[in-house]
Design goal:
- The chain has 9 helices and no strands.
- The protein is an all-alpha fold.
- The chain folds into 3 domains: 18-106; 123-180, no CATH class; 182-232, no CATH class.
- The longest helix is centred in the N-terminal third of the chain and has 67 residues, at 11-77.
């Protein structure tokens, strides 16, 4: 009976096999490490998404609540759909509180101007002026609203009898870019100067108003003042 032939495995083949196994193990370790890293980054990304989503939801809810409060303030101020109508001062005070709550949730420039108006309605001129100054600092980039805020300030200063301060505020409007309220500024300055007996300076401003802003609702008044001066 012939002897079975045993195939001799060379040392070189064993070494090669071992090397391949080691490489496979290394690849597995690298892959597992990468999987852990990817999972970690995934968790970070997911956490960030949850935080951002939470902030967005909070802001949406805050804005929604702000609008609800603003609507309630509006209804209160104008006595709309009220079960128990309030007096003028009571309405304004309650509306002010609601407007302030709405502004606390949403820093809207329009809301802040409304708060200033409500203070003025209540006769709290100093608080109205402080609110308007806060508006000018906080919303300095609101180019379309700054002249309006300054105009409100000038009116309040005149109510308080501060003519000099009112003139300075009117000058701030005049220095602002654009033509918004420039005709109003010329009219108010002219009236103030006229009241102070400075007829020539007042007439010069009336003339400027009539020439620069012929379509202004104050143009006819200005032309009349210039005509009076000529007739005089």
């Amino acid at each position: 009976m012939p002897k079975s032939i045993k195939k001799k495995i060379s040392k070189k083949s064993l070494d090669t096999e071992t090397e391949v196994q080691d490489r496979i193990q290394d690849i597995k370790k690298v892959f597992e490490k990468k999987q852990k890293t990817i999972a970690a980054y995934g968790l970070v990304t997911l956490s960030a998404a949850i935080v951002i989503g939470g902030i967005a939801l909070y802001r949406f809810n805050a804005h929604d609540k702000s609008r609800q409060l603003e609507y309630e303030a509006y209804k209160t101020y104008y006595n709309l759909y009220q079960k128990t109508p309030l007096s003028g001062q009571e309405r304004a005070q309650k509306a002010l509180e609601l407007y302030q709550q709405a502004y606390a949730k949403r820093k809207s420039p329009r809301l802040l101007l409304t708060i200033a108006d409500t203070y003025a309605e209540l006769g709290r001129y100093d608080e109205a002026l402080t609110t308007l100054e806060d508006f000018n600092k906080r919303f300095a980039r609101e180019a379309a609203l700054i002249p309006l805020a300054l105009q409100k300030m000038a009116d309040l200063q005149l109510r308080k009898g501060n003519r000099a301060e009112a003139l300075k505020t009117l000058d701030r409007i005049a220095a602002a870019p654009g033509d918004l309220l420039k005709d109003v500024v010329l009219l108010q300055k002219a009236r103030l100067l006229e009241q102070e007996g400075k007829k020539d300076e007042a007439t010069a401003l009336y003339k400027e108003l009539a020439e620069k802003y012929p379509s202004s609702p104050y143009s006819e008044e200005a032309k009349g003042k210039v005509g009076e001066k000529k007739a005089g």
